[in-house]
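Incident log, structure service

09:12 report received: a user says their structure output differs between two submissions of the same chain.
09:20 pulled the input from the user's history:
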Amino acid sequence: MTALLTEQQWAAARAAAMAAIPAEVQAAGLPAVLLPYQARAVKLLDSACPVLFVEKSRRIGLTWGLAAYAVLRAGRQKSAGGMDVMYISYSREMTREFIDACAMWAQAFDSAATAAEETLFDQGDGDKAINAFRIKFASGFEIMALSSAPRGLRGKQGVIIIDEAAFVDSLKELLKAALAFLMWGGQVIVCSTHDGVDNEFNAQIQDILGEKSKFAHIRIDFDQALTEGLYQRICLVTGKTWSPEAEAAWRQDIIDFYGDGADEELFCIPSMSSGSWLTAPLIEARMTVQTPVLRLELPSDYMFRTHLEQASLMAPFMEELRAQLAALDLTPQFAFGFDFARVADLTAGSLMAIEQRLKRREVLAFELRNVPGVEQKLIVRTIFQRIKSRLIGAGFDATGMGWTVAEDMGREFGLREDPEGAGIVIAVKFTEEWYRLNMPPLKVAFEDDAIALIADAEHLADLRAIKIVRGIARVPALREGTTGKKRHGDHAIAVALAHWASRMRFVEYGYQAVSRPGSGGGEGFGMQPDEDDSGGWYRAPLGAGLRGGI
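09:34 re-ran on a clean worker, output below:
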């Protein structure tokens, strides 16, 4: 994008593009004309989705696709699901553009409709009427586009589209009124680019991702739109020749144009706010478990000591660990989170019990510093052997050397490669997408008192270390603490993994054969009886140990 189009050039280009599309619709049909992401939104809405939130990049044509849906709904008879459609945005130019697109789609669909007209929308209660554009259909329904949020939505019904919702005045109040449309079978469609993490639009998105809200959600960033044909469609409309090189150059020009705002404007990443992701009072309110945290730090020459010395250094910690495990109530199911470290950071582990009312309660937590991998696996194995009949899932940090611990534990307890597959141990390689999808549910758990943690000052600091980085909650790269013993939010990651594992649907896929007493079959293959087995001669039938997840 070397130069901005003038107003006259842009108007002429838009008119030419819209004039060509009705013929395309007649020849190929609607799904073929819409780009895949536009078609997904229309299909979801046409399947009677009541509320849809869309976080999107700028200028990807989603509003154009929604105009097609608006005409489909307003052009139908009432018996076929027809209803009025109201479009709201903050800009008069956007409302005019939406009505123009609706007029084009009406022509493409051969819908009997009047020409677009400008009218006044009566807000009622003596409020001043506001300007609106309107198209009436032979079905008796109409599309109305308004350039500001009306106060008189109550009492209306139909489909309401709130475009660039992050920029309208008082989105929270507007949504309160708009959701009343649902009572008579209407729909609410909210789409926008972001305007900061503290904006009500982002708050709604986080509630959806945190499963606090049941609204439907779609995310379309700039690269996804390009992958699904945005620039190819631009070339088709403008008469340019598409090539990968031309698309790459155009993409970079657009990113350069937005500069520092590209993350927010193009890639659906709300701009940062200051402060911690979780407040100290909120964290402290959830630290109600009084079990002590187990900590082990080995000397730097541990690997060069004799086996007897190594065993003596490990013994006190292992004794405390076994004592805490022996005291566990094995009635609930358990989930485990493990954040691996070997040199600079701490290894952190968090074991959570899933109570009858689905509250996650941390019942065991440990920290390891300068502990070799073999000893770390011994600690994890000891925990798993105690709770293996009730363990539904374990999330392991698989970044770097952490993969070896996850892999070896997976060999013993079942490694899960596919999120929808079977196995207990699942290795997590952290990405922005993982944080984006899985940190909001953790915050909701704190806000809804659905999690209880062990009270510990260091763990409080770790959870406070979570910040919003490029619009996503995560532990930043900066380490905190004294020289040589810095912390990096280690326990916060273990808690996030355990909470995530508790929400996954883990399924056991195998069994371990147990011989009858005296047969000599089992132990001859190196198998040992379960130390907690007090069933005597009785053995449960095959398959009795199979279990599902939460």
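09:41 both user submissions now match this output. Likely a transient worker issue. Closing.
09:42 reviewer note: Residues 7-266 form a domain with the Rossmann fold fold (CATH 3.40.50.300). The first helix runs from residue 7 to 28.
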